[in-house]
Amino acid sequence: MARPREFDLDTAISKAMNVFWAHGYDGASVSILLDGMGLTKGSFYKAFTDKKSLFLAAMTSYENQQVASAIALLNDTDIVSGKERIARLFRSIPDDVAQGDHRGCLLCSAAAGPAADDIDISVLVGGLLGQMRNGFRTALGASNGIDQREKTARLLVTQYVGLRILSRAQTSVSELRASVEAVIELIGED
Question: Distance between CA 99 and CA 126 in Å, rounded?
């Protein structure tokens, strides 16, 4: 008879997400993951099979927490101005850094890392970035014409990823704020 799992799977995935956030996919060895998750090697392999499976689970958890909240903000019709929703999302980047959070975005880090080398991770990352693009497109609204709205949504994803990576690179809050305000100026007023 198999022994029951001695740890909470969601908690283990959450801890792994923080390890991947801190070390990146490539830097998070199984040893570092075991330490960060408080698991034995046997428990790790029984629950997750390998590091990639754990990373995909961590990215799905990140989607449910972080990406979903960003999309909810972009779709929040209680904030009448879609461009205000976009501005709030972008302004959260330097605000996070000002509060000492230099982790950036796990999705953005994955886009700049393992997604380039692994098809499964690439498909997941591409899908999540597509959700972000759809959120930006929704926030931009119908007033922008379909072609222009799509181009602007793509530009905003690119800028968002870039700014989140810069926040990981210890870019100053003032530099991030200046970049965010330039993005907001580019999209103009409603």
Answer: 29
Please state, in angstroms and rounded to a whole number, the distance separating the CA atoms of residues 40 and 67. Answer: 30
Show the tokens assigned to 30.
């199984």
Name the strand (E) or helix (H) holding 117.
none
Reported residue count of the chain is 190
Rounded CA-CA distance 61/52 in Å is 14
- The tokens of 182 are what? 């330039």
The identity of residue 137, as a single letter, is: R
| Chain-centre distance for alpha carbon 165 | 10
76 vs 3, 96, 131, 139, CA distance in Å? 46, 21, 15, 8
Q: Is residue 188 scored above 90 in pLDDT?
A: no
The DSSP output letter for 63 is I
Sequence-ordered alpha helix ranges (H) in 38-145: 41-48, 51-62, 68-74, 82-98, 106-111, 119-140
**DSSP letter assigned to residue 80:** -
User: Per-residue pLDDT for 2 more than 60?
Assistant: no
Report in angstroms the alpha-carbon separations of 186 from 145, 179, 190: 16, 11, 12
- Position 190 scores a pLDDT of 59
**Among 98, 96, 86, 79, which residue's Cα sits nearest to residue 185?**
86
The count of C-alpha atoms lying within 13 angstroms of the C-alpha of 38, restricted to the half-sphere facing its C-beta, is 9
